[in-house]
Design a protein that fits this description.
319 residues, alpha/beta, Rossmann fold, 2 domains, 5-stranded parallel beta sheet, globular, binds N-carbamoyl-L-aspartate
């Protein structure tokens, strides 16, 4: 169980972004609206705004990442912040220094904001609580913690859905695959239900679906064709082999047969359904190349929107 830590301060401002769970609808909408305003900046010849000039953003990725780390770096630079990427594998963490000692040292370098990815669920909460207890004015953004949450991914997914579908209130959305190990799925379920999506579905084999989905307002399907019927949005998830203990699956081929998104299975969704994937994508395991590269895929738009959404979060927190 992750201990909750307040994300919003006494003035109603976003102080940290640790989870979508507990974030009010109005705050989510404010991120999406702010991101819209920032989207244009990326199309200009001069792609910079002075909002975070002089501020120091530290990227602390204790776990690998390509898209998330790079787009946070781009977002912070477009707001004129100074960005420091810590090479964790070569840092003192590998020499046995505790997480909070590393944080104390970086805070002593006058960091203003930490973007944290960690394999341990709850690590960003622990860091935020520690900094607040010390009375430090340092903000924490969760960039993915274990199987728990990945709030900026859910916000950029919500942004992408709103961009293509205009509003949330009439939508059917299916999350397909390894929901059990997916922080993206957990954050998305909280975001989509909070934004008023009336039909959120989880599709996958029983071994990869966590208990308690129904109590989160989600409909569960084991048959993919049934689960995809008439949906407006399909969110495919990667098989998180690195988080699986023991054999939860027969084989990648068998998985693809039942849960791989092929043009034939996608035909069960609404004709104008969009296909999303947070990446990294495993072609031939959860998604067929014909779909990944097809006209309904908006997977690369998600990446582009991710920069504007991360600019919005950084700006709202630290400006
Ligand atoms: C996801 C993650 O790391 O949680 N990827 C991402 O941030 N773009 C999903 C995954 O690893 O499958």
């Amino acid at each position: 169980m992750i201990r909750r830590h307040p994300q919003i301060d006494g003035q109603g401002r976003l102080r940290h972004l640790l989870s979508i769970d507990g974030l009010p609808k109005a705050m989510i909408e404010r991120v999406l609206d702010t991101a819209s305003a920032f989207l244009d900046v990326s199309d200009r010849t001069v792609k910079k705004l002075p909002l975070l000039r002089g501020r120091s953003v530290f990227n602390l990725f204790f776990e690998n990442s390509t898209r998330t780390r790079t787009t946070f770096e781009i977002a912070a630079q477009r707001l004129s912040a100074d960005v420091f990427n810590l090479n964790i594998s070569a840092s003192s963490a590998s020499k046995g220094e505790s997480l909070l000692d590393t944080i104390d040292n970086l805070a002593a370098m006058n960091a203003d904001l930490f973007v944290v990815r960690h394999a341990q669920s709850g690590a960003p909460f622990l860091i935020a609580q520690h900094l607040d207890q010390l009375g430090k004015d340092v903000h924490v953004i969760n960039a993915g913690d274990g199987r728990h949450e990945h709030p900026t991914q859910a916000l950029l997914d919500a942004y992408t859905i709103r961009h293509f579908k205009k509003n949330f209130t009439g939508l059917r959305i299916a999350l397909v695959g390894d929901i059990l190990h997916s922080r993206v799925a957990r954050s998305n379920i909280h975001a989509l239900t909070t934004l008023g999506v009336p039909d959120v579905r989880a599709v996958g084999p029983a071994t990869l679906l966590p208990g308690g989905l129904e109590s989160m307002g989600v409909r569960v399907f084991h048959d993919m064709r049934e689960g995809l019927r008439d949906v407006d949005v399909v969110i495919m998830l990667r098989l998180q082999n690195e988080r699986m203990r023991g054999a939860l699956l027969p084989s990648a081929q068998e998985y693809f047969k039942h849960y791989g998104l092929t043009p034939e299975k996608l035909a069960y969704a609404a004709p104008d359904a969009i296909v999303m994937h947070p990446g990294p994508m495993n072609r031939g395991v959860e998604i067929d190349s014909a779909v990944a590269d097809g006209p309904q895929a908006v997977i690369l738009s998600q990446v582009t929107f991710g920069i504007a959404v991360r600019m919005a979060v950084l700006g709202m927190i630290a400006a």
